[in-house]
């Protein structure tokens, strides 16, 4: 059987060899030479760098037509916007560079190993007057406006919470939902602070600077 043949809408294909028909724009390749010429531009392997015709215009796949996997060699790199952010591989490690504004995640990040670094910087809740201490920030700064009642819901196992009074308009009394050291923590003066950790079903005091625990 010939390798190439023209097929009409009602035609059938039989034989042991199948050649893909490539369509570009509104022109359908139907002849042997047209198919061969088109196929030659789409090699299964290449020894050349592949670049788009213009910058920042074309996509690699789409939301509905996706590639299955990407295989990148040791030392490979993914570059965003000419080096603004880069992800570079080395043996058993990935390095993130750039990203002067930081990296954000829309869900909790978990690890089975150790986290190392020079500083830990968490978000801060500024709470004025009575109200709920946030369980989604690392620290809370209290500005009391009188005898303020404060609450703290249960956290997640291993969660750390730091609370400090920065302006004294009266005593702030915190009543955690579950508190292993007692019932309440009272912030009396500027600088009063506690560091808590949630273990089991309770908040526990790790350190206390000036607060009254009852």
Can you offer a commentary on this structure?
By secondary structure, the protein is mainly beta. It folds into three domains: 1-50, no CATH class; 63-102, no CATH class; 124-213, Jelly Rolls (Sandwich), CATH 2.60.120. 4% of the residues lie in helices and 33% in strands. The protein is built from one helix and 15 strands, in the order E-E-H-E-E-E-E-E-E-E-E-E-E-E-E-E. The chain has one helix spanning 32-40, and strands at 23-24, 27-28, 77-80, 85-90, 93-98, 124-128, 131-133, 139-143, 148-152, 160-167, 172-176, 185-187, 193-199, 202-209, 212-213. The strands form four sheets. A five-stranded mixed β-sheet has the order 6-8-10-13-14, with no helix packed on it.
Short description:
With 214 residues, this protein is mostly beta strands.
Feature tags:
elongated; 5-stranded mixed beta sheet; 33% strand; Jelly Rolls; mainly beta; 1 helix; 3 domains; disordered N terminus; 214 residues
**Global morphology:** elongated
Rounded Rg: 32 Å
**CATH topology grouping of the largest domain:** Jelly Rolls
Q: What is the total number of structural domains?
A: 3
- Tell me how many strands there are: 15
The CATH architecture designation of the largest domain is Sandwich
Oligomeric state of the chains present here: single chain
Structural class: mainly beta
Portion in helices? under 10%
Query: Taking all residues together, what is the mean pLDDT?
Result: 85
Largest sheet properties: 5 strands, mixed
What portion of residues belong to β-strands?
25-35%
Distance between the termini: 93 Å
CATH class placement of the largest domain: Mainly Beta
Q: For the largest beta sheet, what order do the strands appear in spatially?
A: 6-8-10-13-14
Q: SSE string, helix = H, strand = E?
A: EEHEEEEEEEEEEEEE
Q: Low-confidence segments, ≥5 residues, pLDDT <50? A: 1-13
């Amino acid at each position: 059987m010939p390798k190439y043949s023209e097929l009409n809408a009602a035609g059938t294909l039989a034989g042991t060899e199948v050649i893909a028909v490539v369509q570009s724009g509104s022109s359908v390749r139907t002849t042997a030479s047209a198919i061969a010429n088109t196929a030659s531009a789409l090699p299964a392997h290449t020894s050349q760098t592949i670049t788009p015709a213009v910058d920042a215009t074309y996509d690699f796949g789409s939301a509905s037509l996706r590639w299955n996997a990407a295989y990148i060699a040791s030392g490979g790199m993914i570059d965003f916007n000419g080096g603004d952010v880069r992800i570079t591989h080395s043996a058993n490690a990935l390095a993130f560079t750039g990203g002067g504004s930081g990296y954000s995640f829309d869900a909790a990040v978990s690890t089975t190993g150790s986290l190392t670094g020079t500083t830990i910087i968490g978000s801060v809740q500024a709470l004025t007057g009575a109200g709920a201490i946030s369980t989604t920030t690392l620290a809370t700064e209290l500005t009391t406006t009188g005898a303020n009642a404060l609450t703290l819901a249960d956290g997640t196992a291993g969660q750390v919470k730091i609370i400090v009074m920065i302006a004294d308009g009266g005593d702030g009394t915190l009543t955690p939902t579950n508190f292993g050291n007692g019932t309440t923590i009272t912030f009396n003066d500027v600088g009063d602070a506690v560091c808590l950790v949630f273990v089991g079903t309770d908040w526990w005091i790790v350190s206390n600077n000036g607060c009254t625990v009852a």
